[in-house]
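JOB MANIFEST
job_type = single_chain_structure
chain_count = 1
residues = 271
[input]
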Amino acid sequence: MAETDVVTVERDGGVAIVTMNRPERMNALNPALMRRLPEVLGEMATDDSVRCVVLTGAGKAFCAGGDTRDIGKAADAMVEQARTAPDTPPARTSEDRIAWLRRCSEASRILHEMPKPAIAMINGACAGAGLNLAAACDIRIAAQSAVFRMVFSTMGLPGDYGGAWLWTRILGTARARQLFFIDEKRDSAAALDFGLIDGVLPDEGLRGEVLALAHRLAGMPGDGLALTKEVLNAALDEDLAASLDRESRAMIEARDVLVDLRRKEKPGEVS
């Protein structure tokens, strides 16, 4: 499979359906998918024809986390190259690998900050980094058969893709710690009760219902939704006074945009 094929994009009007496409590995993140996903999401974030983004996985899984097999093979290959070909650049240092992971995890930042709604359509297993990618979306809707697990603590890892920041703000500090430390496997009903997702749908109705919601959002005034997302994101860190200032500016800006649109649609009727 070509690297460009590990992420596919389907356009449906103003909705872009971004699919992690490694169904044979439950869409686990290998180096190719980790590189490609932020590239595609960045393109969707800046494409004015895209009004809503739906993130999902091919086949029967959303994303099973990191593909430790492929990531391990890539690391082994770098070490072997350095051992057998001493004139080549040395194997990546820890700082190199940190920088690489940071670039890959831009996928979460782009989903969280893009000026349009992002929906996670969770069609199956959702674990580790996959669960954190879902957290970066504005809305998370799951199939009834979906299962959820954080995984990292059991593997002796703290987690990546923004999970600590995102889940602390979504769930609160106590539940975020429970999610990470206890590493409980949850079905869709338990995930809904815990607060990991916003809704559960029958498997066969998931795509239709999620796309209906996506089209509903795509049909709303885009500038208003972008400002709404900006205000909500900023409110995570601002105090009330700063949030009131931002809201006031955003409201007037959005109203000015709407008035301008009305003037263009009905010249002479809007003063």
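[summary]
Residues 240-265 form the longest helix (26 residues).
DSSP finds eleven helices and ten strands in the chain.
exit_status = 0
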